[in-house]
Amino acid sequence: MKKILIIISAILLFQIIGISSSIPELLKPIKIAENLYAVENPRGGNIAFLVTEEGIIVVDAGSIPSNGMQIISAIQSVSEIPIKYLIYTHLHSDHIYGASAFPSDVKIIAHKKLVENLKAIIEPELKKEITDLPNYISSLKNMKDSIPDKKSNEYIKTNKQFNLYSSYLEELKTTQIRYPDITFNDKYELTLGNEKVILEFPGSGHTNDNIIVRFPKQNAIHAGDLIFNGIVPYVIAEHGATVNGWTRITEKLSLENIKFVIPGHGTITNNEAFKIQTKYFNDLTLKIKELKNQGLSLIEIKTKIILSDFKLRDEGNQLPVNIEAIYNEL
Ligand SMILES: [Zn+2]
Q1: Where along the chain do its domains lie?
Q2: What spacing in Å lies between the alpha carbon of 29 and ligand 1's midpoint?
Q3: Per-residue pLDDT of the chain (330 residues; tens, 9 = 90+)
Q4: pTM for this structure?
Q5: How far, in Å, is the centroid of ligand 1 from the Cα of 321?
Q6: Sign of the alpha-carbon torsion through 218, 223, 227, 228
Q7: CB-based contact 234:11 (threshold 8 Å)
Q8: Ligand 1 center from residue 148 Cα (angstroms)
Q9: Domain 10-114+178-271 fold
Q10: Whole-angstrom Cα distance, residue 28 to residue 35?
Q11: Residue 277 Cα, ligand 1 centroid: separation in angstroms?
């Protein structure tokens, strides 16, 4: 079973974790400032949406089609004005697969590099997951069938996993990867109604296509996954993540006085989030450097640094992954 689990990508695991936690049917929008709302999304990346007289601008789409539908319902509970634009903060499926549920005339905006990433990473990943998951699901079925006591906790747990992955697979099969209509390199300004949104590429950090979305009138920002509030961040080197670059970005942003920060994951926060994210990486880097200088190997270092050193949740077991990424960058 472990072997099968390994082939499931880190992002998919993150989504599964999200789905398996207790999820309300309805996602409730939180009013941040005039015309600006956020949705804290337990099934994927967090959402921001800006309501203007001429249409709604949405940042990120959620993790799977049914999550995209939940997000659309949340938006419609605030305003019936049509959604005009959808912005992707980066390539990860937990931020873009929900786009399948968005109306077909919505214009999607993203960084230029994201197009390449969808072709090279996301398309093959989706295909692979659809191919690999049935094997995993059938191993779960065999496992639950072999448990004699159908009332035991073990059976209940395995059966829950079986149902979870089965319905998840059906969702993946209906997922459509939607490509952006508009792309940019460094900066893109979008004006709609009386509102303005500024999209910026701050350099590679969480991914090589990560952007930040500024709402200047509201002094707010959607930081994408450059901020994981209260959660060990996902550092996926194959997706262009660089802790060095990431720390430079958050350090620079921490010097600004941004009032509202919508993180990629975790609860809505403020400018402190940039300081905390920077400190996490700096502290971790320092510890790794010290241990490396003492002659410890990567495997030994991983055993020396423990989660309780940080006040963070780590449901996807990402701390060792973070350590390895930093170690390799040193
Ligand atoms: Zn991400």
Answers
A1: 10-114+178-271, 281-329
A2: 21
A3: 333 444 455 556 555 555 555 555 789 999 999 999 999 998 899 999 999 999 999 999 999 999 999 999 999 999 999 999 999 999 999 999 999 999 999 999 999 999 999 999 999 999 999 999 999 999 999 999 999 999 999 999 899 889 988 988 999 999 999 999 999 999 999 999 999 999 999 999 999 999 999 999 999 999 999 999 999 999 998 899 999 999 999 999 999 999 999 999 999 999 999 999 999 999 999 999 999 999 999 999 999 998 888 889 987 889 999 999 999 999
A4: 0.91
A5: 14
A6: positive
A7: yes
A8: 41
A9: Metallo-beta-lactamase; Chain A (3.60.15)
A10: 15
A11: 15
